[in-house]
Amino acid sequence: MVFFKLLLNDKRPKTDNIYPVVVRVTYNRKNTTFNTGIRVKKDKWDKNSYKVKHSDSNAQSLNKTISDYFAKVQKAALRLVDDGNFSFDTLKNVLENKAKPAKAVMQESTFKEFAERLISDLLAINKAGNAIIYRTATNKLLAYAIEPKLKFIDINYSLLEGFKNQLIKDGLKPNSISNYFRTLRAIYNKAIKAKLIDRSHYPFLDVTVKTERTAKRAITIMDMQRIYQTSYKPNTGKWNARNYFLLSFCLRGISFTDLAYLTNENIKN
Question: Which DSSP symbol is given to 100?
Fold first, then answer.
């Protein structure tokens, strides 16, 4: 969840008593501020209504500028959150127009090109797990379509229904198939927002993918004890696999991807 608030940044005293109006953005308990470009005297700022007091002769125009910038920050931040690409640096680049619009970068982008770009963005912000899911779903669809230059306009009901049936023939479980389609929908929705394809072509509305309740896979304490106490020759495959499993268990079920990224510096106390 991302939160926004207008503030007068008066933490550092100014000799002229004039301070910048900023937008504070909070995400995952971390925050930063973005300058609206407006500076006002401290006694002219209404901290309860978050605007310049009417006693200032330029209050109307100043408040409009502040309000417009506040809306701009909100819109940009929420779009990044929806796309799963939010970071304070990315938001700063968008606000400063340093980020290139997706349409200008690849107006005739293929499905693979756009998906690869999303995967690169996810890896850049250390979301390796999501990147792997995106890559797997992309490769599966392209392998079925037998068309490396598949365009978004070519992804229609017939293609998706055939893809689903092929996954069923391959023996994939309903939840695995659902995960593929959920990922493909996410990629397609991002392409719509990037103006690479019109929403009127959205092909997923008529494609039904069933899910099933995940079977319980918990094991008993006795099983855990046997795994812990079984002796394996050090540095063998079984020895490593058992140690990885036990470490994941002791770290409250940490994913294997996150486990692989751990370093000695992460171990404290």
Answer: P
d(CA 118, CA 120): 5
Q: How far is CA 253 from the centre of its chain?
A: 22
Amino acid letter, residue 49: S
Which tokens go with 47?
Answer: 């901290």
**Number of H-type helices and E-type strands within the chain:** 10, 5
3 state SS of 35 = strand
CA-based nearest residue to 8, from 21, 17, 24, 25: 21
Q: Provide the whole-model pTM.
A: 0.48
Q: What are the structure tokens assigned to 198, written together?
A: 């019109």
Contact 40, 17 (CB under 8 A): no
Token pair belonging to 168:
């069923």
Q: Is residue 92 within 8 Å of residue 22, measured between CB atoms?
A: no
Q: Determine the 3-state secondary structure of 151 from DSSP.
A: coil
The continuous run of DSSP H or E covering 237 comes out as helix 237-250
> What is the tens place of the pLDDT at every residue in 67-114?
999 999 999 898 888 777 788 988 988 888 765 444 444 445 789 999
Helix 128-145 × helix 111-124 angle, to 10°: 170
